[in-house]
Amino acid sequence: MNIKHFIATYIIVFAFWLLLSAHTDTFHVGAGIACSGIVAYASHDLLFAGTGNHALTKIVRFIAYLPWLFYQIVLANIDVAKRALSPGMPIDPRVVTFKTMLKSDVARTALANSITLTPGTVTIDIVDDVFYVHAIAKEPADDLLEGAMERRIAHIFMED
Amino acid sequence: MSDTTTITNVITVVLLLVGAFFVLAGTIGFVRFPDFYSRMHATGKCDTLGEGLMLVALIVYGGATFVSVKILFLIMFILFANPTSTHAIAKAAYDVGLKPWRKLDDRVEWMNTSDTGNAGNTGNTGNSGEGRSGEDGGDGR
């Protein structure tokens, strides 16, 4: 058991408890200390798994990535809403595959979720290095295969 | 004082309406789209922004309270959970062998046998190429 990870998890979990409970009396804080201890003991190896070195840099870069992701989510919704509401229903679904250069599970998960959140694409499966993505039309598929998002993710997790 | 309340209310109402619009669009898409996978696009995406905007509206209305912080965490949770569950359902359908719907113009019906492979796929309009990409040639999955 990694004692540093345990303590860090304990502090984060307990801070989260305080934030959500918003009570400062002895009973609630005491219950928080006890529960946080149990949860931190059970999950101390989860929170920092796969981050490897330079965890702080990765977190900062990930937070910097979020505004762009939000922008993409807005675009995705307008795009799908347009396709759903226009009378001609301009959809042309297809499954595309591409090989990823990302190595770690965290980076692949981030890419898979980002693909699902952005315009017109849903990640179906990852087999070895290959992503299976369902796209609603040709343009979103082409945008994805251009690879801008993968490069951003690679930059965040220092795999470029 | 009442001016700020009015402005807050207007922002809240606008956010709620826009959020409701996206949820409605998602639902209409769900009804209109032809198959399972394209319906996933409609529900999985429009819900993320629709719910998000509605929750932001509640934050604006409630002001800086502990409840608002909890709503903020709710938004973050939706942001992670929505694509994950969308992916899980899509993967389950794909593993079971559900074939995505294709527009039937000059295309072979979606690769139901592996030996049609890429040969049946050349009629596609403008594959983006670049070597690293391509249509799913049906590798027997």
What does this 3D model show about the protein?
- The complex is a heterodimer of chains A (160) and B (141).
- The relative contact order of chain A is 0.12.
- Chain A has 160 residues and is mostly helical.
- Chain A has a three-stranded antiparallel sheet, covered by helices on one side.
- Chain A has helices at 3-21, 26-43, 55-85, 105-117, 138-146, 148-156; strands at 94-99, 121-127, 130-135.
- Chain A has six helices and three strands.
- With 141 residues, chain B is mainly α.
- Chain B has one domain (2-121).
- The chains are: A mainly alpha (160), B mainly alpha (141).
- Chains A and B meet through α3, β1, α4, β2 and α5 of A and α1, α2, α3 and β1 of B.
Task: Summarize the structure in short.
Chain A is mainly alpha-helical.
Number of beta strands of chain B: 1
CATH topology group of the largest domain in chain A = Alpha-Beta Plaits
CATH class value of the largest domain in chain A: Alpha Beta
Helix content of chain A: 55-70%
Rg of chain A, please? 20 Å
CATH architecture of the largest domain in chain A: 2-Layer Sandwich
Task: Summarize the SSE layout with pairings.
The complex is a heterodimer of chains A (160) and B (141).
Chain A: H1 3-21, H2 26-43, H3 55-85, E1 94-99, H4 105-117, E2 121-127, E3 130-135, H5 138-146, H6 148-156
Antiparallel strand pairs in A: 1-3, 2-3
Helix pairs in contact in A: 1-2, 3-6, 4-6
Chain B: H1 2-32, H2 36-62, H3 66-96, E1 133-135
